[in-house]
Model the fold of this input.
Amino acid sequence: MAEIVIDNVSKRYENGFNALHNVSFTVAEGEFMVVVGPSGCGKTTLLRMVAGLETTTDGEIRIGGRVVNNDTPAERDLAMVFQNYALYPHMTVEQNIGYALKLRKVPKDEIRAKVRQAADILSLTEYLDRRPGQLSGGQRQRVAMGRAIVREPSAFLMDEPLSNLDAKLRVQMRAEVLQIQRRVGVATLYVTHDQVEAMTMGDRVVVMRAGVLQQCDTPQTLYDRPANVFVAAFVGSPSMNLFYATLGDDGRSLRVGSQTVTLSDAVLAERPHLASYQGRELVVGIRPEDLTLEGSGDALSVKVGHVEGLGSELMAHFSMDARAFTLDEAQGSAEELDEALASTVLTEHVRYVVRLAARCGVGAGDALTLYPTMERFHFFDAATGESIW
Amino acid sequence: MASTRIGRRPVATYILLIVMMVLFLFPVLYLFIGSFEPPSLTLGGLRGIIPTSVTFENYVGLNQQFSNPQFTGSLRGFYTVSGIVSLSVVVGSLLVNSLAGYSLSRLRYRGRRGLLLGVIVLVIIPFESIAVPLYYMLQGLRNTIEVQIIPFIGSAFSIYLFYTFFLALPVQLEEAARIDGAGPWRTFFQIILPNAKPAFASVAILTFIQAWSSYLWPLMTTSQPNVYPLPIAIGNLVKQQSIPNFGQMFAFGVILVVPMAIFFIIFQRWFIRSVASLAVKG
Done:
């Protein structure tokens, strides 16, 4: 057991592409750390660097206090679960799980006992003689987990291990993977592009974008206090509503298009830096559940474009007299605007969404008055995208 | 399932296939039956699917033709030479070309693309066009078994076949092995090789057929009966006889074909076995 320290790590490929820029964070002993981000953000590269499958251009990777930059994958004493499981097709489940122990010259009886034990934990006992080709997706996934735990490694690395499973099985395996990790209690670095997976599984979550670490925090903190507009938009489903607004010269009236909302003292007191934005444009965010049909104080008039009934709740997509903010506007490149964010740019006009009660009777074309929960407003610098507190 | 699909196929297709099969099998059948018939009947054509009168006369006569190991060589000698040459070429070829193919498909080094291009170019160069330069290069080895083996171990075609096969193998298998603690050689022999059996079988079969029936090169490089392979011996048999004995030629043909057939039968199950069981996708 050991902690994993990623210290100022960078990765530059031979063709000059910078995959990672000065990434630093620590996975504590026993911690489940999820790295999440849109495709191409460098999360898998980072994992492979920790595994020793990619070289590290700059910075240090330490496992259990030892710098492992130049160690072979085997010397790092890690176990890795691959996205496609990478089970050895010609070996039985038992041989697959025991292969690493065999290479370590562990006595046969001991291998057998350990494999049985792992199989027991993973309910694989009756499949030990089968080959991977004869197993279902979920069973293969378990074999891959078995291969990892049987070694009693100093850390687990997992590269989108659930992405090949269907939705229902994925939810079930999420719980199983967590359970196993708790039981084994080793530092785990888990990579995914699915923010729901990240939020539900991680003790802490690292959000990455274009090779740069955006924020590393607990899921709730990421949700409540995103460090910047990217994290705000990426975490949460549906995404946060983001639009431009101007703070009045009085420092408390917020002009949203042609409407005005007056910020409460509490909001201003909590965010002292907001004072310096008087008379300036900034990006304002509000989550879909922080808008309500009933309330008091200032409200926003909106027009519903279409609704999605989910049974338990209702998502009303609406348009509003305000310039919507999109990620590519703030940070240049639109290319890595992930599918996860696609819902924020649905159509030109209907860009916002509110989460309402299932049977509230709201339908397409309705004009609504929505009351924002003031304390839940998020403010971002329009130029840098950084959160304003 | 399969039967319903076959059942729907038009009868005409089957008739055509049967006719084609008979046409292709005819010479082979004729060869076998003719070799067991008295020489006088051999050229009489195929009269049925079993010989009318069975005799080993042709085989005995053939053995007598090569009764003087010093001057004519012996059947056993030709067999030994052909066997050693073919098996050595197959074993060497599997080892050398699979490693070369692996290196081209997986390792990253300077000049790899150039090498690969070179291999592809070499695939299209026929052996005949380099036979003469090769002959002068290996002059010192004339009339040896080695000279019949060495030029055929490295094969651009086999390298390319291995290369394409290894490219299709998921690289994660090797990465998983590395993390499990396997070094490059162990990874190759314990992980790659067992999953590349179809490629190894294909190369083994193709190489064996080529080596076993090689004629031009041994004709150029051997002139002593003790290093003649079977195809040269059959050629000499034809030259020796003023009146050709077709019965003996048929018998020789059978002798030449049988080991190849056995080799194919041994390896064809790998040849056919698909890689569909690769347990990688979920």
Observations:
- Confidence is low (pLDDT under 50) at residues 274-282 of chain B.
- The two ends of chain B are 25 Å apart (CA to CA).
- DSSP finds 15 helices and no strands in chain B.
- Chain B touches chain A through 22 residues (CB under 8 Å).
